């Protein structure tokens, strides 16, 4: 008897957890938000999440939603942990009248895990500036959108930049480049490309992994002191970045020769080191720090009404802006899909079409208020990333200063690598390639 | 003599490993000294956390997993309070908070769990860890915060006449080492000379006997947890000033675990010596052995320091199960 | 009244030795199995399958494994996720390199490999005891973390260090939908539970328990500690290895070494302590508790309609989680299984307690 009651209680509890609030078929588009505001990576996760959520709020407050379809959203805390991220994904994917619109996990590890699920769930995953490098190939990775560039693009641009500094890529022969990387799928992604380039130009590549969370780097920098590489590429995230800079100061490695990926060049990374980080460079793509039209709107429509997520002073920080841009590209994907499917709540599959046919040109960027904060992006069924261009910005002790040069990755090198890697994934997972020509027709 | 051969063999092997890089000329002497110093500095910090472990284990038989979280909590308190007031006031206030915390832990966790098995107590401190992690971040925030002790961070070059290239040292590291040494000395004095210290040692020796001669056990526990809180505070301030105060500070404490098993759970001297051995061994292994292993086994990068300390401690325990300075356990049926 | 064994006499050895000697227990177990196999798949949503039931089943298996070592043999291990990762990577490599193997064979082989590694890391237990051993087991944890991150062969030279698997297939049955995964795992778990039950109540289980209760005395009465301890490590690692392979193939699908980190080890330990050491039933309770609690805590503010930032909610959840663990340890140090036993005892007398 008791057992039965217990059983009833258990099944009731299970049912309660499972019951997602059934919404009436409202004119709403649901955006799940996977964020991390706690744990070791919170200093970087918070500004990004604030920017992301703020933009969704702005679209509702300023435009009344996307073409009249209101945006709803729900945050889920992942703590940058893969298993937690997968749970969040499962929890949020069915919410809203048409299910989750798209996911932006801001973690390469979570991206790897949910990529496999995207095929069955038919929900796009935008990984703006992170995620799998080979997911550019839309014919295999039907649901991934590494918009704006992957780590292979980033590594390629950095090599080009140091080549230019040396006076030509051929001058890299015999040089030493050390990669100090976060020991996770995120940090390991660029290795393949850097090795490929090393074969071409004859530089020596030193691989120095740093274990999560990255506060223990003494030995790493002792090795750098011993090997004296000509350049150090930093592929860190969270507290690892500032620790690297501190250790660089402690071992006397010149900051001018350090180049970070675009996730290693934000305010929380250099602020704890302050003056001493002067001269440190990092890639910056799409959104440097600063304020533009969209920020004015943000203050007017969101913050002045007391709806802001973060602090007013933090609007315009590098990661905040990156959150804004990421959210904007998702929203634009939906807007684009409205042209084909009508101005109503859309499913993930319909949104994919929008993301595959993105065409955010200069005029559109200006209209959206992002003038100066991003470069045009256009995608297709075959190419899910679009053009990737970025610049280098340098910390002057107080703020980030963007350099004049723009870099674009060399597709001659990347394309065959992407193709081969995607092919390997397709065979491993037994996936048949999409036929883009047929789908278009 | 013959009884000690395993210890001696292991010591000899380690010693050979230690001098090998310099004997074979794999490393220039100046750099070797730098690695050695780096290891010693890291070791000092490990010792600081290990001290907290050892103190609590000695007095209450609790293996306190929460020591790392206490370090973080104390550092966060100092950093955040330091934004509003002078640093030394912040430190005093943080100390008051740590004492309050010690009292709460004794009241709410230890007292009801008296006479439980070691594992249950260990798990309870893990529960405390979860609580403190959440509580600390709710109270103080989860960003990166600074503790500025006002010591220059730029390295200084010394002995450049003796060694080619000179030796880079950090003032901050030296201050840290000095503070740690001072802390240890004062702890030893406290244990040897004060009546409270003697009472603590009595409790450590035999709970029941100590109680029967009128030493109040609960009071002693509060004291010992407060002392551990104080050690955590010092470790947190030193570490925090070097790395920035941030959530991951609590994880560095995992590095102190091999130190305590190597040194013996109950020994303060063990915590110090063990910390230095682990610190030096780890850095030496990473810098000199790591690249060799990468080449030989075609590894994707080194990073052996993460397990080297544990394996070293494990090997040591195989030879001497009670650690360097631990008390020998005699089983009776 | 309902739960009384009066009149159930055992007239032969077979009935005296059966696993569930009381009729009501057998009926209850039968109903439970029918419910779990037949009814659950009908009304449970995919989210519950994927986020609660599937992790619950796999972690129960792992908790049983750990319980054999810690609860039955008394050797504490804080690094058991290491053996999960060994199982997972062994299975990955077996499936990759010998694609013609049936998944069940892969599973068993992966378990055996994990058992071998378990024996290796169990050797120190012959010298080291108690908490020293506990910390020493962390060596296994950090070593495997490093091994699978660094040695490229294990991850098939994947550039990111992350591996992913294809859906599993058994004799033409593609285990793909959440309900199918659930049924498959449930089947595995039932088989393993029955085996474990018979191990611990048999000769070897008694050897383990005597080791736990007093190793010196056990040695005196003729139980070889080498045999008892190492078999406990082997069986425990086998279970945990199989659980690891399932965790990788069925639950995660794609993983990196971080998926088997220290926090998973600690969670396993929580499960058996909260559930009850030395109790198979306790492993079930503990796994259910540890899997469901964080998810429940996460969603409570949502249900109550309280507007709260996810950060605060997650911090609060962590605090409540920590407090609950301490609370449970204080209230019932022997775990939920003990509460269950007390409940059963009460039920036996009900409604006439005197």
Question: What's the quick description here?
Answer:
The complex is a heterotrimer of chains A (441), B (333) and C (354). By secondary structure, chain B is mainly α.
Q: Considering residues with a beta carbon less than 8 A from a beta carbon on another chain, report the largest interface and each chain's count.
A: B-C, 55 and 51 residues
Q: How large is the radius of gyration of chain B? A: 21 Å
Give the overall pLDDT of chain B as a whole number.
82
The overall strand count of chain C is: 4
Summed over residues and divided by their number, the pLDDT of chain C gives a mean of 88
Unreliable stretches covering 5 or more consecutive residues of chain C: none
The main sheet of chain C comes to: 2 strands, antiparallel
Encode the helix/strand succession of chain B as letters: HHHHHEEHHHHHHHH
Structural shape of chain B: globular
Structural notes for this entry:
The complex is a heterotrimer of chains A (441), B (333) and C (354). By secondary structure, chain A is an alpha/beta fold. In chain A, helix 2 (42-63) crosses helix 12, helix 5 (151-166) runs parallel beside helix 7 (191-201) and helix 12 (318-341) crosses helix 13 (348-356). Chain A has helices at residues 2-18, 42-63, 82-92, 108-121, 151-166, 185-188, 191-201, 218-227, 239-251, 267-270, 293-303, 318-341, 348-356, 362-368, 411-429, 436-440; strands at 28-35, 70-77, 125-126, 144-145, 176-182, 204-210, 231-235, 258-260, 281-284, 359-360, 377-378, 389-395, 400-408. Residues 18-24 of chain A have low confidence and may be disordered. Chain B is an all-alpha fold and 333 residues long. Chain B has one domain. The longest helix of chain B has 32 residues, at 29-60. Chain C has a domain at 36-260. The longest helix of chain C has 28 residues, at 225-252. The two termini of chain C are 13 Å apart. The mean pLDDT of chain C is 88. Chains in contact: A-B, A-C, B-C. At the B-C interface, helix 5, helix 11 and helix 13 of B face helix 6, helix 9, helix 11 and helix 13 of C.
């Amino acid at each position: 008897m008791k057992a039965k009651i217990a059983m009833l209680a258990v099944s009731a509890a299970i049912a309660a957890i499972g019951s997602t609030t059934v919404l009436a078929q409202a004119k709403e588009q649901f955006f799940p938000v996977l964020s991390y505001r706690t744990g070791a990576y919170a200093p970087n996760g918070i500004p990004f999440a604030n920017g992301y959520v703020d933009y969704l709020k702005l679209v509702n407050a300023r435009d009344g939603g996307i073409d009249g379809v209101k945006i709803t959203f729900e945050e889920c805390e992942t703590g940058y942990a893969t298993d937690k991220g997968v749970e969040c994904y499962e929890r949020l994917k069915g919410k809203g009248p048409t299910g989750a619109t798209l996911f932006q996990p801001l973690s390469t590890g979570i991206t790897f895990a949910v990529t496999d699920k995207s095929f069955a769930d038919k929900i796009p995953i935008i990984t703006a500036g992170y995620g799998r490098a080979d997911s550019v190939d839309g014919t295999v990775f039907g649901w991934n959108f590494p918009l704006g560039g992957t780590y292979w693009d980033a590594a390629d641009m950095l090599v080009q930049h140091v080549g230019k500094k040396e006076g030509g890529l051929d001058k890299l022969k015999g040089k030493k480049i050390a990669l100090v990387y976060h020991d996770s799928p995120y940090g390991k992604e660029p290795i393949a490309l850097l090795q490929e380039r090393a074969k071409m130009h004859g530089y020596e590549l030193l691989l120095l992994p740093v274990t999560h969370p990255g506060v223990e780097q003494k030995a790493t920098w002792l090795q750098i002191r011993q090997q004296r590489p000509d350049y150090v590429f930093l592929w860190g995230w969270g507290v690892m970045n500032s620790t690297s800079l501190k250790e660089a100061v402690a071992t006397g490695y010149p900051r001018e020769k350090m180049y970070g990926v675009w996730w290693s060049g934000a305010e929380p990374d250099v602020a704890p080191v302050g003056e001493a980080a002067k001269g440190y460079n990092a890639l910056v793509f799409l959104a440097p720090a600063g304020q533009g039209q969209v920020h004015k709107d943000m203050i007017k429509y969101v913050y002045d009404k007391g709806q802001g997520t973060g602090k007013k002073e933090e609007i315009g920080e590098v990661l905040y802006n990156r959150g804004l841009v990421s959210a904007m590209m998702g929203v634009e994907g939906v807007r684009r899909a409205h042209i084909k499917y009508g101005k109503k709540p859309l499913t993930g599959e319909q949104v994919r079409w929008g993301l595959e046919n993105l065409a955010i040109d200069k005029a559109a960027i200006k209209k959206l208020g992002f003038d100066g904060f991003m470069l045009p992006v256009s995608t297709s069924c075959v190419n899910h990333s679009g053009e990737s261009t970025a610049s280098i910005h340098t910390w002057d002790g107080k703020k980030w200063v963007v350099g004049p040069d723009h870099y674009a990755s060399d597709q001659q090198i990347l394309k065959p690598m992407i193709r081969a890697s995607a092919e390997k994934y397709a065979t491993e997972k037994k996936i048949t390639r999409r036929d883009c020509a047929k789908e278009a027709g | 003599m013959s009884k000690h051969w395993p210890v001696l063999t292991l010591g000899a092997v380690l010693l050979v490993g230690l001098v090998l890089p310099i004997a074979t000329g794999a490393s220039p002497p100046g750099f070797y000294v730098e690695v050695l110093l780096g290891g010693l500095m890291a070791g000092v910090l490990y010792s600081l956390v290990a001290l907290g472990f050892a103190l609590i284990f000695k007095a209450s038989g609790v293996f306190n997993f929460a020591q790392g979280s206490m370090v973080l909590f104390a550092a966060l308190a100092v950093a955040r309070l330091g934004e509003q007031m002078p640093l030394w006031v912040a430190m005093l206030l943080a100390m008051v908070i740590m004492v309050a915390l010690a009292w709460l832990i004794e009241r709410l966790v230890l007292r009801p769990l008296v006479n439980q098995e070691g594992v249950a107590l260990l798990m309870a401190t893990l529960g405390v860890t979860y609580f403190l992690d959440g509580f600390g971040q709710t109270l103080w925030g989860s960003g990166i915060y600074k503790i500025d002790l006002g010591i220059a961070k730029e390295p200084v070059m010394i002995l450049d006449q003796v060694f080619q290239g000179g030796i880079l040292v950090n003032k901050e590291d030296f201050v840290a080492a000095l503070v740690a040494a001072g802390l240890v000395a004062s702890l030893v004095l406290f244990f040897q000379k004060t009546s409270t210290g003697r009472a603590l040692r009595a409790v450590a020796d035999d709970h029941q006997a100590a109680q029967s001669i009128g030493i109040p056990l609960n009071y002693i526990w509060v004291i010992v947890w407060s002392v551990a809180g104080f050690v955590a505070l010092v470790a947190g301030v030193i570490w925090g000033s070097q790395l920035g105060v941030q959530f991951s500070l609590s994880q560095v404490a995992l590095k102190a675990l091999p130190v305590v098993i190597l040194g013996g759970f109950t020994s303060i001297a063990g915590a110090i010596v063990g910390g230095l051995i682990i610190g030096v061994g780890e850095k030496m292994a990473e810098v000199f052995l790591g690249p060799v292993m990468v080449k030989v086994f075609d590894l994707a990068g080194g990073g052996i320091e993460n397990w080297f300390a544990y394996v070293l401690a494990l090997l040591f325990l195989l030879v001497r199960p009670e650690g360097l300075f631990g008390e020998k356990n005699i089983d009776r049926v | 009244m309902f739960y009384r064994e009066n009149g159930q006499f055992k007239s032969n050895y077979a009935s005296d030795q059966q696993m569930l000697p009381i009729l009501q227990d057998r009926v209850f177990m039968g109903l439970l199995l029918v419910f779990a196999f037949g009814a659950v798949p009908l009304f449970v949503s995919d989210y519950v399958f994927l986020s609660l039931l599937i992790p619950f089943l796999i972690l129960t298996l792992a908790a049983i494994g750990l319980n054999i070592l810690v609860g039955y043999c008394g050797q504490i291990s804080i690094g058991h996720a290491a053996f999960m990762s060994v199982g997972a990577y062994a299975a990955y490599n077996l499936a990759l390199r010998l694609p013609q193997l049936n998944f069940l064979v892969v599973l068993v082989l992966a378990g055996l490999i994990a058992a071998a590694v378990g024996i290796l890391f169990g050797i120190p237990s012959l010298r080291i005891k108690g908490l020293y051993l506990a910390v020493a087991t962390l060596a296994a944890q950090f070593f495997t973390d490093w091994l699978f991150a660094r040695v490229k062969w294990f991850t098939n030279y994947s550039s990111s260090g992350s591996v992913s698997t294809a859906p599993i297939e058994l004799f033409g049955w593609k285990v793909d939908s959440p309900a199918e995964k659930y049924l498959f795992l449930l089947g595995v778990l039932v088989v393993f539970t029955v085996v474990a039950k018979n191990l611990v109540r048999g000769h070897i289980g008694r050897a383990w328990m005597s080791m736990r209760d007093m190793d010196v005395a056990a040695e005196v009465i003729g139980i070889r500690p080498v045999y008892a301890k190492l078999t406990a490590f082997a069986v425990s690692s086998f279970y945990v290895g199989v659980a690891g392979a399932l965790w990788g193939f069925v639950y995660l699908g794609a993983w990196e070494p971080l998926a088997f980190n220290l926090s998973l080890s600690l969670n396993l330990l929580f499960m058996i302590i909260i559930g009850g050491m030395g109790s198979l039933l306790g492993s079930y309770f503990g796994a259910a508790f540890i899997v469901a609690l964080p998810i429940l805590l996460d969603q409570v503010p949502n249900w109550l309609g309280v507007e709260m930032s996810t950060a605060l909610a997650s911090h609060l959840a962590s605090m409540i989680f920590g407090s609950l663990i301490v609370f449970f340890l204080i209230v019932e140090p022997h775990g939920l299984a003990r509460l269950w036993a007390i409940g059963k005892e009460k039920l036996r007398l009900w409604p006439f307690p005197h």
